[in-house]
Amino acid sequence: MSPEQAMGRALELAAAAGEWGDTPIGAVVLGPDGAVLAEAANEREKHGDPTAHAEVLALRAAARVHGDGWRLTGATLVVTLEPCTMCAGAAVLSRVDRVVYGAHDPKAGAAGSLWDVVRDRRLNHRPQVVAGVREAECGALLREFFASRRGL
Question: Is 152 a residue whose pLDDT tops 60?
Fold first, then answer.
């Protein structure tokens, strides 16, 4: 599966998260061969867990099936919104090769917008970053969610 195709699946997952009241963010982890290792949507509201971001849940699930313990060497994290500092740190620590995201997050993004955790030269691993994949669709989903929540 290509990152663009995986982003399509991440968008489906994100839409589902909005249905149960979570911010609509979805993530897919692709293995070195492009096969889906894991996928998840935000579940913070669903489980009352501040760490239940789509990226963290997908990385945890991928580590259980990848076969190299916690290291996701060769994997790609595809996510609808630019990772926050927690999720960017998780991507670095899991050793994914690449982070692909859709919409930029100027308020909390940590893959180049507000911070650049994933490419910080002081860290021992720096994934490649591909930004703006299906950005318009990813951004529209978030805008629609927040507009409906705020009654706009």
Answer: no
